[in-house]
Task: structure prediction
Amino acid sequence: MKRILLVDDSPIQLRILEVLLRDRYEVQMSTSGAEAVRYAKKTHPDLILLDYDMPIQSGKETFEQLQAMEETKDIPVVFLTGVQEKEVVAEVLKLRPKGYLLKPVKQDLLFETIMDILAADGHV
Result:
């Protein structure tokens, strides 16, 4: 079973996503960027769904940290966030994540995105 790491500072959002995904994927959850980086190094998930707007360490900072480390640089990351300001989206897309989905995300779009990325990266 493929492993997905959910990263969001909202426990409610994490729980919603976990319920959606748990029948198809092994789901890990993290409420902070620093914790997510530790999990990713230790467990090497097949995909990370990452919130952008988090306290202490933003999703952008977390993504940059993951990309800078040999152990985690190849893990596909999709931003799943409510942040939709054009400047922020453009800045994040320059980092070349595998995707950028807006909350609340439709279940079909979420599953389609996950399956497409895992298939493209040879993880399916």
About this structure: The first strand starts at residue 3 and ends at 7.
